[in-house]
Design goal:
Radius of gyration: 31 Å
Number of helices: 41
Structural class: alpha/beta
Distance between the termini: 59 Å
């Protein structure tokens, strides 16, 4: 969690804790006080100094003493001011009841004394308290009153700052357009007043909004401008926050090294200026970033520092979040007892803070962790569940009951108690229909797996269909293909239970449909949308607006879930808040529906299995040629299903293997194949074992007889396996020596790509790019050789190989080959890129900055029959690089080019060597004049295999081809055979 920049340049500025992970919370502002001596010997400067250092308890005590002095001297103005400041210090120290009492007392004093010039400060402070407590409606009212009070006395600065604070509420409820207006007005005011520091604060807030809205690339220029202003004003607290916000933006873009570098700089400023709370926030964010990079040991070290610091200054309100983060990292390191201890600490912190719902969630986490400990954790599991039941009863809300029921069901599933799972779900049946709950999919999925374990197949199929239908409804509401893909990947286990139930019920064709639906359908949806509407570019703005509305709807639903956890005894406090959020949610949903109607964006939504509009498997079979067969895999939690589609229809084979076990074997295979120095004695047993699991069953069943080309549709970790390098233990041959291999993201996309428009090119029109011939010497030789083989124009070398030139070539019907650096962005795959030359003197426009990123590729109108990405990891997505993303990857560079219109794309699975890349490309283009890309790729792989220098699969197995697999050029297109 992170404190954002201050709105005003005053010592007593303050902030609150963010509501969600990795967000840097919005900016806060509070009034400054006067530095006056009192007979206690304490000055306001002393109190303000303690406050600015994050020593909130000390500051509170000093402000209270100063207020007492003022009361004895009958100085109402000073008494009101010091009470306001004491309330703010109490608030920052997590003493919310005391903060409200002091703030309301100060306001009453000012009203009674007619201190109209001071009213705005009190209303503003009470608004900040309400905002921090999640009472958004009351916060907006308080900020509105503060604005009105300021306007009444002609204090334009206080008025604009109160309006800006209202923008904080808009930010947290996801109403980013209103937040932009509020912060934009503050920026205009700051510019008119030539207020350097306020300009910096306003820009930081605007950058924060863009980051929250999912546009970190837009946020960065604003944040760098903010940093410049803060440094010019010598406002260290503002500089610290701007640096931290930049770090958060880079983290959102998947640049963890840059994120850590900027956050380290923020941390240094916080420490040198004794900004205790920002220091604790920076340490916690650094720990989260390290954890997301898999460096859990370092994350735990940073969290320990953050915990000690937070404890030393009484920041117990963030200790619960720190303890939860520690539990996550410990669990990732396999330290289940340690994770449970930290989860128990989080529970205690949340109990001390009165966060009953968070405590309920902690108890359920403890129960699951205790179950993982086995027999030794049974007593702790029982105690945690008993406490969770008591807390849910105290809260007495629909959301709490659902949270409890699902938690009990998860524990029962871990205990291999399917009947217990069913009983837990049955108890919350009536509560699951609430719009603000949103857990129906998980409940149905738990039921489906329980019924499957009991062998009750009809019930498993019914519950499985309900679970898949719920996930599909979520997918269909998303305008972004990337988000639709990630939803399916994240919830692949939901599809898995239904796949297995259908298979065991002898419904193989239906099982295949579900399995195919469980992966990315972005290519299929893109082609379908392109056929319906040729004006794709005109939809870009509508899609962006739709995505922002969906983000806001999700945020409001989440806030309503929390608001619904208040008990009836406290409902009088929360009803107004719930009503406010409900009205906001209704308005947002209505706006989304109107946008869908106006722009027909809904037509570009997910092709839903729930609607039955996926292509029929019969159409898929008709797209296969006589010498082709498709192998589509589905990786379940404890089984691997292999679908084989060919002359004999659809056959399914099941093998017992865990998802984690399969992933481990694939990681080992990649590590061995991706090393030049790996020996065959170390490599071959692993590759042979995977062949036995993935290929041999279909071969033994005769399903690959007469097949020359295998169309492979991988799933989960299989998307990162070099299939061509698998070894048949019977013949000791690599798979590529028996089959050419074409890969696709989904089985149903084959009919789509082969039914789409098929632009053809001419070899002499190929466009060849080598932007860094000095860094990659073999890339010049590579494109020169290809140019001679194809009799193509001279390559674009060095500074001539600009991004704009490359974009132009993609829009023409010509082969496009680029030999360059590929950069995989594991945290944010939409920012993975290929590097090109930046035009001399070019502006920083994204269209010509030399970084062609995935999100940019998706917007291009590509007509090339073949795009060859001769760079590192151009076919690898985020799931291989982080354990937090599973399943098929939408946002690989290769698939982005395919989705944007390229007929065929050749890409790489790992970092390739410069000379080997040139040799492979030469072999490929020597064959492609008379062969299809699939045949030419197989021919090139076999050619390198036959050499001594490049025989290792390290040099040739990294290359994969995806697309329609048909010949490229008009002069050599064979007739299409349709089975």
């Amino acid at each position: 969690m992170r404190i954002a920049s201050w709105l005003v340049a005053v010592i007593a500025s303050c902030g609150v804790i963010a509501s969600c992970r990795r967000d840097r919370p919005a900016t806060r502002q509070t009034p400054a006080g006067d530095s006056v001596f009192h007979k206690t010997g304490i000055t306001q400067a002393d109190a303000d100094g303690a406050y600015s250092r994050g020593e909130y308890d000390s500051a509170r005590v000093m402000y209270v003493r100063l207020a007492g002095d003022a009361e004895q001297q009958h100085d109402t103005l000073r008494l009101a001011k010091m009470s306001t400041q004491a309330g703010l210090a109490s608030w920052r120290g997590g003493r919310y009841p005391e903060a409200r009492k002091l703030g309301e007392r100060a306001l009453a004093l000012k009203i009674a004394a007619g201190l109209k010039a001071e009213l705005a400060k009190s209303h503003n402070a009470l608004g900040l308290l309400a905002y921090n407590e999640g009472r958004f409606s009351q916060a907006i009212d308080a900020f509105t009153r503060a604005e009105a009070a300021a306007n009444a006395v002609g204090d334009s600065a206080a008025a604009i700052k109160a309006a800006g604070n209202r923008g904080l509420v808009y930010t947290d409820i996801g109403d980013f357009p209103k937040a932009r207006v509020a912060f934009g007005a503050m920026l205009e005011f700051a510019r008119a007043k030539d207020d350097t520091q306020l300009q910096g604060n306003s820009l930081t807030n605007l950058g924060m909004v863009e980051e929250r809205a999912g546009a970190p690339a837009v946020a960065l220029p604003l944040l760098f401008d903010a940093l410049r202003f803060e440094r010019a004003a010598k406002f260290f607290a503002g500089e610290e926050n701007a640096l931290g916000q930049i770090g958060a933006a880079y983290q959102a873009m998947g640049e963890p090294q840059l994120a850590i570098a900027y956050l380290d700089s923020a941390l240094a400023i916080a420490r040198s200026n004794e900004l205790r709370q920002p220091e604790a926030d920076d340490l916690q964010l650094l720990a989260e970033y390290r954890g997301e990079m898999g460096d859990h040991a370092r994350a735990l070290d940073l969290l320990a520092q953050a915990s000690a610091l937070a404890d030393s200054v009484g920041l117990r309100n963030i200790q619960g979040a720190i303890a939860r983060a520690q539990a996550r990292s410990m669990l990732a390191l396999g330290d289940i007892p340690g994770a449970r201890r930290r989860a128990e600490a989080a529970r205690q912190f949340h109990a001390d803070a009165g966060s009953t719902f968070a405590q309920l969630q902690d108890e359920l986490s403890i129960a699951e962790l205790a179950r993982r400990e086995g027999v030794s954790g049974i007593d702790a599991e029982k105690a945690a569940l008993d406490t969770a039941r008591r807390l849910a009863g105290l809260i007495d809300s629909r959301v709490a009951r659902v949270e409890l029921g699902l938690g009990e069901a998860r524990v029962a599933e871990l205990a291999h108690d399917p009947r217990g799972v069913l009983k837990s779900i049955e108890r919350i049946r009536q509560d699951l229909g609430a719009a603000a709950v949103g857990n129906e999919w998980e409940a149905s999925a738990l039921e489906a797996r329980a019924y499957l374990a009991l062998g009750r197949l009809p019930e498993a199929i019914r519950s499985g269909r309900a679970a898949v239908g719920a996930v599909e409804r979520v997918r269909s509401r998303l305008a972004s293909g990337a988000l639709r893909a990630s939803v399916a990947a994240d919830r692949s286990a939901v599809y898995g239970a239904l796949v297995l139930a259908l298979l065991r019920h002898n419904e193989t064709q239906e099982a295949f449909k579900v399995a195919d639906a469980a992966r990315s359908r972005a290519l299929l949806e893109h082609l379908a949308a392109a056929r319906r509407d040729s004006t794709r570019a005109s939809q870009t703005g509508a899609l962006a607006a739709a995505e922002q509305l969906l983000r806001r709807i999700d945020k409001l639903v989440d806030l309503l879930r929390v608001a619904d956890t208040a008990s009836p005894r406290r409902r009088v406090v929360t009803d107004d808040q719930t009503g406010f959020l409900s009205r906001q949610l209704a308005d947002s949903r209505r706006d989304y529906e109107m946008l869908m109607q106006r722009s027909a964006v809904a037509d570009h939504g997910s092709m839903s299995i729930a609607r039955g509009d996926l292509p029929d498997p019969a159409r898929l079979r008709a797209s296969l040629r006589p010498d082709e067969a498709m192998i589509e895999y589905f990786v379940g939690q404890n089984s691997l299903v292999t679908f084989v589609i060919g002359a004999r229809g659809i056959q399914a084979l099941e093998a017992p293997v865990t998802e984690d076990g399969l992933a481990s074997r694939i990681r080992l295979a990649r590590e061995l194949v991706g090393r030049r120095d790996a020996t065959r004695s170390a490599r071959d047993p692993v590759l042979s074992g995977l062949y036995d699991l993935l290929i041999a069953p279909a071969k033994r069943a005769g399903l690959l007889d007469g097949v020359r080309t295998l169309i492979v549709v991988p799933h989960s970790a299989l998307a990162y396996l070099p299939f061509s390098a698998l070894i048949d233990p019977a013949s000791t041959k690599y798979l590529v020596e028996s089959f050419d291999v074409l890969e696709l993201p989904s089985g149903s996309s084959l009919a789509a790509v082969r039914g789409a428009r098929s632009d053809v090119g001419r070899t002499e029109e190929a466009a060849l790019f080598a932007p860094f011939p000095a860094e990659l010497p073999a890339s010049r030789a590579e494109v020169d050789t290809i140019s001679r083989l194809l009799r193509a124009p001279a390559p674009f070398l060095g500074s001539a190989a600009t991004e704009s030139t490359f974009r132009a070539a993609l829009g023409q019907t010509r082969v496009v080959h680029v030999a360059t650096h590929g950069v995989l962005n594991p945290r944010a795959p939409m920012f993975s890129r290929i590097e090109l030359a930046r035009a001399y003197g070019a502006s920083g426009l994204p269209s010509n900055d030399g970084r062609l990123e995935v999100h940019e590729v998706l917007a291009l109108p590509i007509r090339s029959p073949l795009v060859f990405l001769s760079g590192c990891e151009t076919g690898t997505g985020a799931a291989w690089s982080t354990s937090f993303a599973r399943g098929d990857d939408y946002a690989t560079l290769a698939e982005a080019f395919l989705y944007a219109g390229a007929r065929n794309v050749i890409s790489t699975l790992w970092r390739i060597e410069d000379r080997g890349a040139a040799a492979f490309a030469s072999s490929f283009y020597a064959a492609v004049g008379t062969k299809s890309p699939v045949e030419a790729l197989g021919s090139a792989q076999r050619a390198l295999l036959a050499t001594g220098q490049f025989a290792s699969p390290y040099y040739w197995a990294a290359y994969v081809v995806s697309g329609d697999g048909r010949s490229l050029f008009a002069q050599n297109r064979p007739p299409v055979s349709v089975q």
